[in-house]
Amino acid sequence: MGEKDQDIKSPMKRVGSTRKIVMFSSIRQQLNEQLRCLDTRVESQIGLIQEIQDFFRRRGELELDYSKSLEKFARGLLLKHKEQKQKRDHWPIFSTFACWQHLVKETQSLSKDHAILADLYSISIVASLQTTIEDVQRIYKKVKLIGYEIHEDIQHLLQELHTTMKTYQRYESECKSAKLKLVTAESQRKKLEQTIAKEKLDRNKKYKLTEKEIVKRDTKYKDARLKALKAKTEYQLCLEASNTTIHKYFVEDLCDLIDCMDLGFGSMISKAILMHVSADQGRSRAILQQADNLSHLIHSIDCRADKQKFLEHHHAAFIIPKRLELQYQQDQTEIIEVDIKKELHLDMEQRLETLGQRLRDLRIECDEVWKSLETAETKLLEHYNNKDNDTSDIFTEGKLYIHKTPNSNITPKLKAEKQDIEDYYIMVSCRKHFLQINYYCYCRKFENI
Question: Which UniProt keywords are present, listed alphabetically (predicted)?
């Protein structure tokens, strides 16, 4: 990756003091490890493409030196792969790795030199793979920024959870303090009742002051109790929303981000290598079986299967973390007063109505975004699957070979259109994730209320 990508730091590292994030440190470390794993993944992808690119570049040169040089070249590739086995430990998890293996074996059987093949290998395919590398780097940079934003949202959600927890604990402490003061005032009144005659209580100044103090402290206690109950409710809702968001991120959003990274990856590599396949098919019937085998491997490129192997290989980094546990004061046995219950009931009804309206709005917005996402994905795949890789007819007898630059049928306008659709697809995909996060949060709050 470039120097700029290396300088970017995860937003999960920009949190408050260590004391505030002890309970979330494992999640933060796991999110940071995910970014490192994704960096390694894209580096392996690019390294694999570069190796295939280097293969075709050198293959074009070696075609001029005939079969002995090609055999030597194949042995050199196998030896290089053996020597760098540890460095290439992640290669086998990619389905495109089988293509590279077959290309090496095929090189050992090549016996003819052909000037057109040399030109095709060293110019067209190398340039196409270079375009693929640039596309992969550009897409991954954008997806990585989206990953940072999602991590930042999770961080803010956890910070909000921490704040609501502290608020609840503070209000609960205030409630206990108010209760203690009320009990003290009541005990003072009881002492006065025991020491002063009943007929003189109504005229006793100290007794009247004590009565007023009890009323005052009772009001404060009820207010403190109401605040504590509301804070507890808010804390429980935030806790459930946090658990739901984190679960959805690990179950769905991570896979969607990797899918965004891999969109068109297999198609672009297939398009480049199919130039070689079609050339071999037109050049000689003797190697048709080998060309068919390679074609089968190319069509077996499965980015989803690669993704699953990648997730299994880095199981510790992508496993769903344990649910966050509810933390509250143990003394919760008191009976809630009737007036507090009514006020809580009204508050919950208002909250329920607000959440219901928000859920309806989010559902409509999610449906609209999903339609836009499907349309953008279809258009983008049309660009990636452009059928311009067939070169079999250039070996027809008597046909004049005319060199064509890679993607010569793609005008600057089409290229700009592809990049615009690509940017729009990633932006809408990001919007979809944010809407779904909000939707799931509100759903869980709605269900809990």
Answer: Coiled coil
Half-sphere exposure of 203 (CA within 13 A, CB side): 4
Crossing angle of the two packed helices 25-62 and 96-109, in degrees rounded to 10: 20
**Cβ distance 250 to 318 under 8 Å?**
yes
**Exposure on the CB side of residue 435, measured as CA atoms within 13 A:** 19
**Pick from 17, 445, 432, 382: which is nearest to 252 by CA?**
432
Q: What is the mean pLDDT of residues 336-350?
A: 66
Q: What distance in Å separates the CA atoms of residue 350 and residue 333, rounded to the nearest whole number?
A: 27
Distances (CA, A) of 115 to 70, 206, 403: 15, 114, 12
User: Is 111 strand, coil or helix?
Assistant: coil
DSSP state of 21: G
Distance CA 412, CA 271 (A): 20
pLDDT > 70 in the chain, percent: 67
Rounded Cα distance between 136 and 48, Å, is: 12
Question: Mean per-residue pLDDT for 118-135?
Answer: 88
End-to-end CA distance of the chain: 47
**Measured CA distances, 159 to 110, 125, 166 (Å):** 63, 50, 11
Mark 31-45 as b/e (b = at least 16 C-beta within 10 Å).
bbebbebbeebbebb
- What digits encode the pLDDT tens for the residues 86-109? 888 888 888 888 888 888 888 877
pLDDT digits (tens, 9 = 90+) for 386-406: 666 677 777 666 555 565 555
Tell the residue number behind the tokens 């389905």, with chain if given. Answer: 95
Among all chains, which residue has been given the structure tokens 């989010």? 362
Residues 64 and 319: their CA atoms lie apart, in Å, by 51
Q: What gap in Å lies between CA 426 and CA 142, rounded to an integer?
A: 8
Distance in angstroms (rounded) separating the CA atoms of residues 294 and 52:
14
